Amino acid sequence: MIVITEQAGAKLKEVMENENKAGYGLRIYVEGGGCSGFQYGMAFEEKPNEEDDVISMHGIDVFIDPYSVPMLTGTEVDYKDDLQDSGFSMKNPNAKTTCGCGQSFS
Questions:
Q1: Position 100 confidence tier, pLDDT thresholds 50, 70, 90
Q2: What confidence score (pLDDT) does residue 74 get?
Q3: How many domains does the chain have?
Q4: Whole-number pLDDT of residue 106
């Protein structure tokens, strides 16, 4: 379904602890918007909704709603922190086009 790299998992745990959200899960979703039609979203939540798919990776539970599942299947969530780029990125094999910022797709 979704792959979270080791680097992304470590950074997510760090952010969760800094925001007093240790033990929460990560919701990854798709919503309409952005310059390419759809955009990615991520948020910490205490528990999944009843209809969510839940996967666990690197000690983090990931919640995905049924609407987002088909658009996110096969997506890799990574984290970079270097001189030119810093932040989370999504590598989505289902995206036909992406915008320059990498946060929206169609």
A1: low
A2: 95
A3: 1
A4: 52
Plot region of 37 (φ>0 → left; ψ -120 to 50 → alpha; else → beta): left
In a domain, 103, yes or no: no
Torsion of CA 38, 62, 7, 77, to 10 degrees: -20
Q: What are phi and psi of 72, to 5 degrees?
A: -105, -10
- Residue 104 domain-assigned? no
Task: Look up residue 4 and give its two tokens.
Answer: 């979270």
pTM, to two decimals = 0.84
**Do 47 and 59 form a contact (C-beta atoms < 8 A)?**
no
Amino acid at 7: Q
Question: The tokens 């760090």 sit on which residue?
Answer: 14
User: Pairing between strand 75-81 and 2-4?
Assistant: parallel
Query: CA 54, CA 97: separation in Å to the nearest integer?
Result: 27
Residue type, 95: A
Domain CATH for 64: 2.60.300.12
